[in-house]
Write a structure and sequence with these properties.
alpha+beta, 5-stranded mixed sheet, binds magnesium ion, two-stranded antiparallel ribbon, 7 strands, about 230 residues, Heat Shock Protein 90, Helix Hairpins, binds adenosine-5'-triphosphate
Length: about 230
């Protein structure tokens, strides 16, 4: 029974990988055609062009996210020793301009926390969490705190943010693919709805866990625990 379920799971992953891979080419062609139209001086850009460009960009994002999701579970990455505190700093540096645009202040604190895994995937995990903490935050004076800690046996990454009050029932569903919350946050910051599913998948492929908790004063606390590793020599 378990073997049958695993085989079906692998089949579904292969299907998602193949389907998203096949969609890449027509979407890239569409993107090029839209660029050619934009640069044609004899044809002024219309509102329809802009909408087509936005829809095309979103479809490309969705396809890339699906492709990543299907690949992560295959665990085909090379492992190295990774310090989560450096990953947190790198993700913060990258997303600082976005945080400034949203009026959100970001604080990074904590100690070195070593784990074994793919530095690229762990950066993707941290970036997705930080991106969420910035865009699904208060519209004014929002804050984000990203913390790393070394606990016995575990390297722990926590991302906490202010925001709307969330019910525990809603929070329990947020890691499901295409789940995008409710209310104002959803309308203003509509993403693809795969960010947390990717985080969960990356954590799982590193033998770790992801937990989400609604903060009583609003916003979310997200914790990723990964098996601890010794620092490399
Ligand atoms: N840090 C957070 N604070 C408050 N709400 C959050 C946070 N992270 C996620 N959410 C809620 O969970 C939903 C799912 O998040 P997820 O990252 O999977 O998708 P998304 O951000 O909508 O789209 P994308 O695929 O672009 O990341 C969000 O739409 C939002 O409602
Ligand atoms: Mg997201």
């Amino acid at each position: 029974m378990l073997a049958q379920l695993e085989a079906r799971d692998a089949e579904l992953r292969r299907f998602a990988a193949n389907a998203s891979h096949e969609l890449r080419t027509p979407l890239a062609i569409m993107q090029t055609l839209l660029e050619v139209a934009r640069n044609d001086p004899s044809r002024p850009s219309t509102e329809l062009d802009e909408r087509l460009r936005a829809v095309n960009a979103r479809a490309i994002e969705l396809t890339e996210a699906l492709l990543l999701l299907s690949k992560v579970d295959q665990r085909s990455f090379v492992r190295e020793t990774v310090d989560l505190s450096l990953v947190a700093e790198e993700a913060t540096e990258t997303l600082l301009p976005l945080a400034e645009k949203h009026g959100v202040s970001v604080e990074v604190c904590g100690t070195a926390a070593f784990t074994s895994g793919s530095s690229a995937l762990l950066l993707q995990l941290t970036t997705n969490l930080l991106h969420n903490a910035v865009v699904h935050n208060l519209s004014k004076n929002g804050t984000v705190r990203i913390t790393t800690a070394a606990e016995p046996g575990w390297a722990v990454l926590t991302v906490e943010n202010t925001g709307e009050e969330l019910s525990p029932q809603l929070v329990a569903t947020l890691t499901e693919p295409f789940q995008r919350g409710t209310g104002r946050a959803r309308r203003d910051q509509a993403g693809v709805g795969l960010g947390l599913a990717i985080v969960k998948s990356i954590a799982r492929s590193h033998d770790g866990t992801l937990s989400l908790g609604a903060r009583p004063q609003g916003g979310l606390t997200v914790t990723v625990r990964l098996p601890a590793a010794r620092p490399s020599a």
